[in-house]
Structures are given as C-alpha cells and as structure tokens.
C-alpha cells in the first residue's frame, strides 16, 4: 500500500468488523495494510501476499516485528492460486491491487473459497482503467495500464455473490 492508499485503507477498514483473534488475508499492497490489520487483530494472525518479489521483501522489512512475534506471515503468491485451505480467513482484503490481477474472476473465486462462511471481502481501489484522473493525484500515469474499469469490477463482484 502506498501512502496515497493510507486514507482509503483507513476508511475501508472502518467499515469492516475485525475481531482480535481473526485470521486475515491481505492480497498485495506491499505491507502497510498488513501492519494496520495486525494492530487491529491484536491476538490473531495476518497473511500478506504479493506476486512481486520486491513487494514481498519490502513487506517483510516493514513487518519484521510482527513476523518475529509470529503474528504476520508474508508470502510470494498470486491471488489466482491461493495456497490456503477453504474457509480459513475473516476478512480477506485487497487495497489498490485487484486491477492488476491477471484474472479478476479467478481471484474473486479464490477469495470466496478461502473466506469463512459469512465473512467479508474488502476490495478497495481508487484508480481504474479509463478513469479521468489528474497526473500525480491518484496515479493518473498508471491508469491506462489498469486491466479493469469500475463497471467490470462491480460485475465480477456481483457474479461471485459479493456486495459492492
């Protein structure tokens, strides 16, 4: 999660019920979201994953204290093939990363598979393909490379029984 995502993340997490003993999955973001989640679920465990070795290394450095306490685990994985058992997590989060996944529907199916029954998936994004943004404000230079527009993301969520 870059600094530009911090306020968005705080806002999103304020809408999710996270219990002290929750086991949480965060897909992508580089580690700051993982730190925030570990602080909230102060007796639980947070698994962070990213498919980038650079992001994984950064997340491990940022969360070294949590990792040493056994409260955080960072893995190099993709959202499309989660190496976890069914119904393991509550909640599952992705901040500013889902539009980079190679296959959004597959990632959402995987999220649903590893989510505990009745659990929450929180996917936050502020920049989408085709969005009208000003360069430097929300990563406008990145916009054209994003794989999905807002409508495609909402449609995929609805197709996987998610509220948006």
Main attributes of the structure:
164 residues; alpha/beta; Rossmann fold; five-stranded parallel beta sheet; 7 helices
Secondary structure topology:
Blueprint (H helix, E strand, L loop, with lengths): L5 H8 L9 E5 L4 H9 L4 E6 L2 H10 L1 H5 L3 E5 L15 E4 L8 H11 L6 E4 L15 H4 L6 H10 L5
Parallel strand pairs: 1-2, 1-4, 2-3, 4-5
Description:
- The chain is globular.
- α2 (32-40) links the parallel β1 (23-27) and β2 (45-50).
- The protein has helices spanning 6-13, 32-40, 53-62, 64-68, 104-114, 140-143, 150-159; strands at 23-27, 45-50, 72-76, 92-95, 121-124.
- It is α/β, with parallel strands linked by helices and 164 residues long.
- It has a 5-stranded parallel sheet, sandwiched between helices.
- The longest helix is centred in the middle third of the chain and has 11 residues, at 104-114.
- Residues 133-149 have low confidence and may be disordered.
- It has a single domain, classed as 3-Layer(aba) Sandwich (Rossmann fold), CATH 3.40.50.
- The protein is built from 7 helices and 5 strands; from the N terminus they run αβαβααββαβαα.
């Amino acid at each position: 999660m870059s600094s530009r995502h911090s306020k968005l993340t705080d806002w999103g997490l304020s809408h999710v019920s996270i219990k002290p003993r929750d086991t949480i999955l965060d897909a992508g973001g580089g580690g700051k979201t993982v730190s925030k989640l570990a602080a909230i679920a102060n007796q639980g465990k947070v698994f962070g994953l990213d498919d980038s070795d650079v992001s994984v290394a950064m997340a491990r450095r940022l969360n070294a204290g949590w990792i040493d306490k056994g409260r955080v685990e960072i893995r190099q994985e993709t959202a499309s093939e989660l190496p976890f058992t069914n119904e393991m997590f509550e909640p599952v989060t992705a901040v500013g990363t889902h539009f980079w996944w190679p296959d959004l529907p597959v990632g959402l199916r995987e999220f649903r598979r590893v989510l505990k029954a009745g659990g929450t998936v929180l996917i936050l994004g502020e920049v989408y393909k085709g969005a009208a943004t000003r360069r430097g404000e929300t990563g406008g230079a990145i916009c054209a490379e994003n794989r999905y527009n807002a409508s495609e993301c909402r449609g995929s969520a609805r197709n996987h029984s998610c509220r948006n």
